[in-house]
Design brief:
The chain is α+β, with helices and mostly antiparallel strands. It is built from 21 helices and 38 strands. The protein is elongated and about 120 Å long.
Length: 794
């Protein structure tokens, strides 16, 4: 919510300066994001009155203007704007003026005519990014007055970040109420006078769904002045609150929304076909909206319709067919209350965004439509004149939200807050929150105001007590607790140990969203049905992740787009799955690697990371379990991964995780240049740790043998090592694969594996015969299972 400080102070007598006010708001939960001046200082730009306009003698695109700036002589200014006319009051930059865009104004000859200044647009004044024509001022401006003083550009624009439960603060009035409660200041609220009808012309209205729309009011205003423009004071207030002026009627409705918090809409009466009906959308019905998009609402969407078609989506956006434009003569003003349930999620579901929907889905005071329509009529009569007709009120008061009294107990206040609060303090704060407070002996009966949808229970009011009283006034105290020693199981590997290992290996931890883009999620899905979000907060967060990779890939892409070419990220998180119709969560460790193996340096040539580099990182993690030799890496053929450079990690029959390079086709689709490697491990299985056991070192010597065998290319080296251990038995105390060879002297369909064996017996020295017998058993086992042949020493 962006507000003007000057506008706010008209509503509440605050004695604090703007900095102290902002600090108080932030400490109460209404966090202020920024404060900035409403406009730049313009010491040499003054109000000028165009006295005469004549064509430039050398070009039809320019005019020569004589401008009165309050000096003895007029300024001659050559102007190219099309909206200049005699009698116009315009910002005039004097000679030697410096504009916010850096332009210096000096007397300049323009096609043989000396121009002594410049007539300015809003863009040149630094007030808007784009503008058409000069920034025309109202005729109440004093000639020669500084423009920044006339426009009160010393005003502060305050940007407040509101939480979703504080929809009541989405207006100047709402922030003023908050300031009054926080500071004890007086709120300047005056009753809006009722505007009597001047004609008998009324609009027929029917509300067919009063549960979704319990209040709906309409009023015709005829014969508005089509030549009038929105006055400067209203345009400036709209601009400072982030709303672009459009048309006097539309500007009035937006002004009411900003000041009171009541969204309103106006229809062009001559574009309506008969009466107005509030109903649910019909099958196949379409609406062309104000932003030009075509919408096909579903049967649960509330619409405003005439006798032929839907003309607006209730509480969200109006239609183009009945919109206000410069030719509008008669209008229908609408002020309604739509329940949050009828609007919530609809705008996002249709890909729409509007100030109206933003307010209605958070809750708008149901008591506002009546004063709002009268206030709007008052402003319209002042600006565009017109003749108002009678108000047609189709309210179903039985469906209007009713606020039930809440009992607040003094003892409960002190119990929840953990501090003492005087009875007078409690009552003072409660009366600031709502005037409907009645005191009993040790409690209060409080009826929340109609605009505070977030107050329903006793604890809500107690929260208001400490928020208004001030969190900074809570006394500091040391909590009373008894220290207990926790138990740490050696059989459970701690996450902090895994985190330390990865950071030592140059990884950085990230935290990504559980909601992911379906396009990224589908890259790695295999016969899985992802859990879709019924009401996603954004189109690219429509599914729950089935793997950590979508978020990690998005983090990688973000870093690559910022020219970080070496990225190594990991994340601990949960994935979400449907199994037998039930939802399951699995704790995972995921990672993504791309770029060079090491940072660029002089002592070692740089090379791109490969599969075995990442596999080494995984093996280091597995080694923390104390049983890394039981984990097997098998070839993996997985959707989205590169065949031959992907592996499934298993512990016996149990899957532990996957590792591999993403497929070049997927990589190209993500617009990534360098190879990308991903891994994911089941965190709970990974944390199962083997407790180390002491083994007495053998006093007897070890015997080392190297063995080289030739096997088919498809044979997994891990399977060979398992077979060697099985055949060699307990005598093998160490086994190490040290060479894999393919090339000259070897059948292209086969490969050579060389490994070293260390043999030892714990009770005696092995004989040569025993060693040879063990080697023979190993060779025979490899021959039977894999067709392995002993490689010759040629």
């Amino acid at each position: 919510m962006i507000i003007s400080e000057h506008w706010l102070r008209e509503w509440v007598d605050i004695q604090l300066d703007v900095r102290d006010l902002v600090d108080r708001l932030t400490m109460s939960g209404l966090e202020v994001d920024s404060i900035q001046r409403a406009g730049p200082e313009l010491p040499d730009v003054v109000v000028g009155r165009v006295e005469e306009v004549r064509p430039h003698p050398d070009t039809h695109r320019l005019t020569v203007c004589e401008v009165d700036v309050g000096r003895r002589s007029r300024l001659t200014v050559v102007c190219g704007a099309t909206n200049v006319f005699a009698g116009a009051f315009v910002p005039t930059a004097l000679p030697d003026a410096k504009l916010p865009n850096g332009m210096m104004i000096a007397p300049t000859s323009v096609r043989r005519i000396l121009s002594q200044g410049m007539l300015c647009s809003a863009t040149e004044l630094g007030l808007e990014d784009k503008s058409d024509g000069l920034y025309l001022l109202d005729h109440d401006a004093e000639i020669g007055q500084r423009v920044d003083e006339y426009l009160k550009l010393s005003d502060c624009v305050i940007d407040i970040d509101l939480t979703p439960n504080r929809g009541d603060c989405l207006s100047i009035l709402g922030i003023a109420r908050e300031c009054a409660a926080l500071t004890g200041s007086t709120l300047n609220i005056t009753d809006v006078p009722g505007i009597e009808a001047e004609t008998n012309v009324a609009i027929d209205i029917a509300v067919l769904d009063s549960q979704r729309c319990p209040r709906y009011m309409g009023r015709i205003v005829e014969d508005i002045d089509r030549e009038v423009v929105t006055p400067i004071w209203m345009r400036e207030r709209l601009r400072r609150c982030g709303v672009r002026p459009i048309h006097p009627v539309v500007d009035v409705t937006n002004y009411i929304m900003l000041e009171l918090g009541q969204p309103m809409h106006a229809f062009d009466l001559e574009r309506l076909r008969g009466s107005i009906t509030v109903r649910l959308a019909k099958p196949g019905e379409t609406i062309i909206l104000l932003d030009g998009s075509e919408l096909r609402p579903d049967g649960e969407t509330l619409v405003i319709a005439d006798q032929q078609q839907a003309i607006a989506v209730a509480g969200i956006m109006g239609g183009a067919d009945s919109s206000i434009d410069t030719g509008t003569r008669h209008i229908v003003l609408e002020a309604a209350h739509f329940t949050p349930r009828s609007v919530a999620g609809k705008a996002r579901g249709f890909g729409l965004s509007s100030d109206s929907a933003y307010r209605f889905e958070r809750g708008v005071d149901a008591e506002l439509p009546y004063p709002a329509i009268h206030y709007a009529t008052t402003l319209l009569k002042r600006i565009v004149r017109g003749k108002p007709g009678p108000i047609v009120d189709k309210s179903a008061l039985r469906h209007v939200p009713k606020r039930r009294p809440v009992r607040v107990r003094h003892a409960r206040v002190e119990q929840l807050l953990g501090m003492r609060m005087d009875v007078k303090q409690v009552e003072s704060v409660l009366r600031r929150v709502t005037s409907k407070t009645r005191r009993y002996e040790n409690s209060w009966k409080v009826t929340p105001p109609s605009y505070r949808f977030d107050i329903e229970r006793e604890c809500d009011l107690i929260e208001e007590l400490i928020r208004v009283h001030g969190y900074d006034h809570v006394p500091v105290s040391v909590p009373k607790s008894s220290a207990t020693t926790g138990t740490i199981s050696d059989s459970k590997l701690s996450i902090s140990r895994i985190r330390s290992l990865l950071t030592d290996r140059d990884y950085q931890e990230v935290i990504t969203y559980s909601f992911v883009d379906s396009s990224l999620n589908n890259l790695f899905l295999e016969d899985q049905n992802p859990i879709r979000i019924a009401n996603p907060i954004a189109d690219n967060m429509s599914e729950l992740r089935t793997t950590l990779w979508p978020g990690l890939l998005q983090a990688l892409i973000t870093n690559l787009n910022r020219q970080y070419r070496r990225v190594r990220l990991f994340e601990f998180g949960r994935t979400f799955h449907l199994r037998g119709g039930q939802r399951h969560e699995v704790s995972q460790l995921g990672g993504v690697v791309s770029g060079s193996v090491i940072e660029e340096q002089w002592a070692q040539d740089s090379r791109a990371v490969d599969f075995f580099d990442v596999k080494a990182d995984i093996e280091a993690i597995l080694a923390l379990t104390g049983a890394n030799n039981r984990f097997i890496f098998n070839l993996l053929d997985k959707t989205g991964m590169q065949p031959g450079q992907s592996a499934a990690i298993s512990d016996g029959d149990r899957s532990v995780g996957v590792l591999g390079r993403i497929h070049p086709r997927v990589q190209s689709g993500l617009d990534i240049d360098a190879p990308v490697y991903l891994f994911q491990l089941d965190l709970e299985m990974l944390r199962q740790r083997r407790i180390p056991k002491f083994t007495k070192p053998s006093r007897f010597p070890a015997i080392h043998r190297d063995l080289s065998v030739i096997v088919d290319n498809g044979v997994n080296a891990g399977s060979i090592l398992d077979a060697v251990i099985e055949a060699g038995g307990k005598r093998i105390v160490n086994l190490n694969l040290f060479d894999v060879y393919r090339g000259e002297g070897i059948d292209p369909r086969r490969k050579s594996l060389a490994f070293g064996l260390t043999l030892r017996d714990s009770s005696r020295t092995l004989t040569d015969d025993e060693v040879e017998n063990t080697i023979s058993k190993i060779i025979d086992a490899l021959d039977r299972r894999f067709g392995a042949q002993l490689r010759s020493k040629e």
